[in-house]
Write a structure and sequence with these properties.
The chain is α+β, with helices and mostly antiparallel strands and 361 residues long. It contains 5 helices and 17 strands. It has helices at residues 2-25, 95-119, 124-157, 164-193, 197-222; strands spanning 45-54, 62-64, 70-75, 82-83, 88-92, 225-227, 232-237, 244-245, 250-251, 258-259, 262-265, 270-278, 293-296, 303-311, 316-317, 332-341, 353-359. Strands 1-12-16-14-13-17 form a 6-stranded antiparallel barrel. The protein has a 4-stranded antiparallel β-sheet with strand order 2-11-7-4, with no helix packed on it. Strands 6-5-3-8 form a 4-stranded antiparallel β-sheet, with no helix packed on it. α2 packs antiparallel against α5 (197-222) and α3 runs antiparallel to α4. The radius of gyration is 47 Å and the shape is rod-shaped.
Length: 361
């Protein structure tokens, strides 16, 4: 009985093993690929990595750095917004340079007011005072002269009627009155002459110097507002309100390095792709001008023909593809720039990596 039970269990185990083997031997049909992998469309083509960029006459995207350091107080634009040249992008805290500019302008205004005062001389009121002083001096001289004439006439009639001292005092009074009249006349001439030319030129120089200092302070103040250097689209804003920025840019939390405060690109119906050809493949391209190329968008079946624009004749490290400044690489690449019409069936963004095949036939 016991032997029969063992035999039955063995038969059941053998059957289960056969069923399991049959089930596992049946392979499931593979899933269809999400997209067709990029394949070389040319008989003689080479592969290269590429980065999508906005189309520029030279260089790549426009990296905006402030010329002064400060804390961000306002951000006037948003990413993806089209702006014109001169549009304010970011504003920095400017209380100190603003106070300096106001002070310089006040000093320049005071210097200009003093210069205008010198140029406006003589003032009519000052001229009338000088003329009145001359008239008063003339009247004093006449009075002193009349007194002297009377004293002399009395002395001539009777020397005992006027003492010698009195006669001398009257004579001295006339001389003093004549001197005062001379001073009043010279003073009137000085007032009529107006400001001295040397004083005017000196004040002009001071006013120009202070005006230039005020203009320099105002120009420095303007730099605390970062403006768009050209027409284009705001691609990236790398600073927030309260962040500190400088001429080196701002600190990026993710890359742990300095990045531009704002990155801008051109707004156009065409985009560009910067293709990096490995240095070992450069010799295979017999002619760069007019070379054909096709771009494949990763994750899609989209392929776009490219139009040759220019070559950047400087072989640079491939590190530019990853932007990892601590990465050590020995491979160098030649940047070749193509352009293409933006496809309607897929969204492409500057900075996106693409696959490119370049025809070297």
């Amino acid at each position: 009985m016991r032997t029969r039970g063992i035999f039955v269990l063995a038969v059941v185990g053998l059957a289960a093993g056969l069923v399991t083997a049959v089930v596992l031997a049946v392979r499931a049909a593979p899933n269809a690929p999400a997209f067709t992998p990029a394949s070389n469309p040319y008989a003689h083509g080479i592969y290269a990595n590429g980065i999508v960029e906005t189309e520029q006459a030279s260089g790549s995207n426009v990296n905006v750095f402030p010329e002064v350091a400060g804390t961000v107080t306002d951000i006037f634009v948003r990413e993806g917004q089209h702006v014109e040249r001169g549009t304010p992008l970011v504003h920095l805290e400017d209380s100190v340079p603003r106070a300096t500019a106001d002070q310089q302008e006040a000093q320049a205004g005071a210097a200009l007011a003093l210069l205008e005062e010198l140029r406006a001389q003589p003032r009519p009121e000052t001229l009338r005072v000088a003329e009145a002083q001359r008239v008063a001096a003339q009247a004093t001289l006449r009075t002193a002269g009349d007194q002297l004439a009377k004293q002399r006439a009395s002395y001539a009639a009777d020397p005992r009627s006027v003492s010698k001292g009195t006669l001398d005092d009257a004579t001295n009074a006339v001389r003093v009155a004549e001197a005062n009249l001379g001073v009043a006349e010279r003073q009137l001439e000085l007032v009529k002459a107006g400001a001295w030319s040397f004083d005017v030129r000196n004040q002009e120089s001071q006013q120009i110097a202070l005006a230039q200092a005020a203009a320099a302070a105002r120009a420095l103040l303007e730099k605390y507002t970062i403006r768009a250097p050209a027409d284009g689209t705001v691609l990236s804003i790398n600073a927030a309100v309260g962040a500190f920025v400088s001429s080196q840019g701002t600190f990026d939390t993710y890359t742990q390095g300095a990045v531009p405060v704002v990155v801008m690109g051109r707004s156009a119906d065409h985009l560009a792709v910067r293709v990096f050809v490995d240095e070992i493949l450069i010799a295979k391209i017999a002619k760069l001008d007019g070379v054909r190329a096709t771009m494949f968008v990763r994750g899609t079946d989209v392929k776009v023909p490219l139009e040759f624009v220019r070559v950047q004749p400087y072989v640079s490290p491939k590190i530019e593809l990853s932007n990892a400044r601590t990465e050590r690489v020995d491979l160098r690449v030649l940047p070749v720039i193509f352009r293409f019409a933006t496809p309607a069936d897929v969204h492409l963004y500057p900075g996106q990596l693409v696959d490119v095949y370049v025809d070297v036939g």
